[in-house]
Amino acid sequence: MSDPLKLVEAVRARLGPKAVLTDPADIEPWATDWRGRWHGKSVAILQPSSTEEVAAIVALASENGVPLVPQGGNSSMVGGATPPADGSALILSLRRMNRIRSIDRGAMRAVADAGVILQSLHEAALEHGLRFPLTLGAKGSATVGGLISTNAGGTQVLRFGPMRALADGIEAVLPDGTVHDGLTGLKKDNRGYSLDQLLVGAEGTLGIVTAARLKLVPAIHLRAVAWLGLSSPQKALDTLRALEADTDRIEGFEILPQESLDAALRHIPGTRAPLDSRHEWHALVEATTHGADAEPPAELLTRLLAPLVERGVVENATISATEAQAEAFWRIRDSLSEAERAAFGPATQHDISVAVEDMPLFMAEAAAEVERAFPGTSASGFGHLGDGNIHFHVRAGTRGGPDWLEQEGNAVQWLVDDLVIAAGGSISAEHGIGVMKRDELARLQPDRVRHLRAIKAALDPKGLMNPGKLV
Ligand SMILES: Cc1cc2nc3c(=O)[nH]c(=O)nc-3n(C[C@H](O)[C@H](O)[C@H](O)COP(=O)(O)OP(=O)(O)OC[C@H]3O[C@@H](n4cnc5c(N)ncnc54)[C@H](O)[C@@H]3O)c2cc1C
């Protein structure tokens, strides 16, 4: 086995003491994942301050045969940034590379170092009257490099797409230490495979992202949030399609069943039912404007929803009158995981996607199939219907107590994943594969994994980039 301490010494000699952290107290928080599920070991954290320093480290790692685990904010939900437990690898932190290199108001583009935290990017864009249209719960920690490497999404994917759509060029150090410069701003470029796109979602297995060119949009001028009562996910989808036929200003479209709303109202302090009527399903719809001359979003939603209510597609609706009310609606949506945990006890959670149009039927059939196979459980989903991405939960119900997950969690997981793949879907709609879903992906889609491994072997023949993750 190669010696990581030799690499530590080589990096210190080349880049100076600032580039290396070796105090165990400094390393410990970064060697365990966000939720404390995976614990790794690394004798040092390497922390370069420039692309040239990353290139030097990667070249030295290649010479010494020492694996590197790239890390940004360490907010991975799948153990993607946790080093292996045997201490064979070193953490390569990009957090010192936190400079926004430029914001171009005309081109509506930012160029940011990989270690820039999402919230800092939001703030910098806003100073120019612009917005980076992706946000998520970990925005105070997640970095540009991590967002790219997990192809992160959020609640605005419906309108603006995930990182794959928002990253307009990537600079990265490839496993042999050479720098790939994709920051050139070319709108058209037909030179074969896109290395930029290969790096999106690669989870650090193909190289180290050092910077990205990112798309910006005008800052929000006004927003409004509608809360709808509906009879089914299919009616919710019909509603979304009807809205989209008339406007491109719908940013979010989230659904939840009545029982999840009840759980939030019972367990999340300060929440109030948005409607005074009960419905099998609910949807939250956000519309925005970026200029004073556009139809205000509350009026837009009122105008477009009225005929749907009249036709009975939507059973009831209310629209936020103030920003505080819009926030209150979103708070219910954002607290659903916590509310469900409190209300329903142990549950398996599946962050899955199928084609948007197939989701209503998939949700009904998968729930029925799981409840048939595991009598006493109850299955349901909530989340980003507009992206075909649902958080599908199977609750223990009357079937098991607190240790139900240990007893049957895997069996339920396999059944749900089998159903997702049979429906042409994905077992990872957000967060990536990491270590958590690696074996499951290999079980379900061996050909896909074989192809991914072939790409990895071509670019990283020594297998030094984030070993043990994804493939
Ligand atoms: C509360 C919470 C809410 C979340 N909500 C969402 C959500 O709505 N949507 C969503 O998609 N995700 C969500 N996530 C997951 C997580 O925030 C994202 O995956 C994010 O992109 C990770 O960024 P990071 O900088 O923390 O990356 P890290 O956790 O440090 O790393 C993630 C992966 O990327 C690799 N990596 C990191 N930096 C680089 C780099 N510079 N070059 C190459 N590889 C690199 C790592 O090796 C690892 O495999 C959430 C997480 C939390 C804790």
TrEMBL record:
The species this protein belongs to is Sphingomonas brevis
Q: Record keywords: Protease included?
A: no
Instruction: Please give the PANTHER family that the UniProt record associates with this protein.
Output: BLL6224 PROTEIN, D-2-HYDROXYGLUTARATE DEHYDROGENASE, MITOCHONDRIAL
Taking every annotated instance into account, which residue ranges of this chain make up the domain FAD-binding PCMH-type? 38-219
Q: Which UniProt keywords apply?
A: FAD, Flavoprotein
The protein's name in its UniProt record: FAD-binding oxidoreductase
Q: Any keyword Flavoprotein?
A: yes
Q: Which domain of life is it from?
A: Bacteria
Q: Name one Pfam family in it.
A: FAD_binding_4
The record's comment on protein family reads: Belongs to the FAD-binding oxidoreductase/transferase type 4 family.
Task: List the InterPro entries hit by this protein, alphabetically.
Answer: FAD-bd_oxidored_4_C, FAD-bd_PCMH, FAD-bd_PCMH-like_sf, FAD-bd_PCMH_sub1, FAD-bd_PCMH_sub2, FAD-linked_Oxase-like_C, FAD-oxidored/transferase_4, Oxid_FAD_bind_N
